[in-house]
Amino acid sequence: xxxxxxxxxxxxxxxxxxxxxxxxxxxxxxxxxxxxxxxxxxxxxxxxxxxxxxxxxxxxxxxxxxxxxxxxxxxxxxxxxxxxxxxxxxxxxxxxxxxxxxxxxxxxxxxxxxxxxxxxxxxxxxxxxxxxxxxxxxxxxxxxxxxxxxxxxxxxxxxxxxxxxxxxxxxxxxxxxxxxxxxxxxxxxxxxxxxxxxxxxxxxxxxxxxxxxxxxxxxxxxxxxxxxxxxxxxxxxxxxxxxxxxxxxxxxxxxxxxxxxxxxxx
Length: 266
Ligand code: HPA
Hints:
By secondary structure, the protein is of the alpha/beta class. It comes from uncultured Rubellimicrobium sp.
């Protein structure tokens, strides 16, 4: 099925009103999709959608209203490390675009490289480093593949998220996210290396979706929930279990920011 066929199928089930914004909810954050008032469509009903086989995700697309804004919330994403395909989220993002969305907010769980950003804090991405060297547009044949990435993280969306955090009294850090392919976590030497290169947080997602979103003409911004100090930075154990256990600490902050951001007009 093409993105347009899938969008038609979704409109049949969830109604014709165009979607304004997409939300992609990362590890331990999928419950926010459940707060959207609307229609939940399991990814399994959407041919070509990734299976989102990572525990801690909620593999549904929920189309409906959150704080008065028509959104499409993805309760989980496909990661490069599940399939070896860095473009695994291309079809879902094409569908989002076909549903009428203008912008996309990405969320993820990440490791912190800064001692002033402890576990449980939230960080707005000012920019990213594609440390994996992979790219979801490899093989794309049109000149549209030469996507400018100078202001990939949209200044106006970022300002709106910053304002929303301030209005809610939530401290929103800001920094650079490095994409490491996973699924193994990083070594302490790798963390020291990317810190030297200018990274503030590290994770296994988001960068390919930012690239795809810009390719599709969607404005995009991303927020990390910091679920641990990165490898070698503390005695904290680093595991997927730990990520899922710690995500709710930051998720409550993220939820306040997102709701206020939507309510105050996007
Ligand atoms: N590294 C990579 N991805 C992550 C981490 C980490 O430390 N924590 C949560 N996701």
